[in-house]
Amino acid sequence: MATVKELFNLEGRVSVVTGGATGLGLQMTTGLAEAGSNIVVCSRKLENCETAAGQIEKLGVKALALACDVTKPDQVEAMKEATLKKFGRVDVLVNNAGRAWAAPPEDMPLERWQQVFDLNITAPFLCAQALGREMIRQKRGKIVNIASIAGLVGRNPRAYSSIAYSASKGALVNFTRDLAVKWAQYNIQINAICPGFFVTPLNEKLYEKNKDNIDREIPLGHTGGPDDLKGMTVLLASDASNFITGAVIPVDGGTVAW
């Protein structure tokens, strides 16, 4: 029987975090490293990844920085090969890279709709497929998809206007459930975190403009903080979640509870 500390221990594991160099991605990357996991941090901007990797290595783990456009199958495959070359294995995939485009539904450009879907749902499929093949070979793995409460409910149009984001995150929620069922036979656990509102450099202006409306929708009365995704990410990446798969878990201050 394992102790709680042993269940949450990620020492020796290898975690790939897409979009893991900034914002919520960096928070989750840091949490995984603090639990002992080696890290592969990838995004389109190599400089950001290298900066994040330098910070991560100060925590006493190994880190690999990779430039990767996760909407491109060849770059995803190259990311997988680089990961295996350095670490020889992959244990955890956090599909975090994402984007939004604000426009009323009647004005949403098709090009922007497609760009949002390419990154928010096609890219997680590509990464899960590529790294999942290695997890199947290993007969174990953890995939954590970062969806959103926007994928669970309709949003207040006075505060939010990105139907492509909401629709793509809803698709990611059911992708999580169905893939969890398909790959349970390989001992791969696949779950989704649905963050509520966290202030990041990408949405600071939106928050400043709609602060009252946004805060009013959160029962706890405040947005997510710099540590609020760490625990859930480590749980779903660790042996503590070996009997959890297909779960869709809001981390939202109670927003979808009312």
Please give a structural write-up.
This protein is α/β, with parallel strands linked by helices and 258 residues long. It has one domain: Rossmann fold (3-Layer(aba) Sandwich). Helix content is 45%, strand content 15%. It has eight helices and seven strands. A seven-stranded parallel sheet has the order 3-2-1-4-5-6-7, with helices on both faces. α2 crosses α8. The longest helix is centred in the middle third of the chain and has 29 residues. The termini are far apart. 45% of the residues are buried. The model has no long low-confidence stretch (mean pLDDT 96).
H-E order: HEHEHEHEHEHEHHE
Tell me the overall shape.
globular
Helix content: 40-55%
The gyration radius over C-alpha positions equals: 17 Å
Multimerization state: single chain
Write the layout of secondary structure elements.
Layout: H1 4-8, E1 14-18, H2 23-34, E2 38-43, H3 46-57, E3 63-67, H4 73-87, E4 92-95, H5 110-138, E5 141-146, H6 163-183, E6 188-195, H7 204-216, H8 230-237, E7 248-251
Parallel strand pairs: 1-2, 1-4, 2-3, 4-5, 5-6, 6-7
Helix pairs in contact: 2-8, 4-5, 5-6
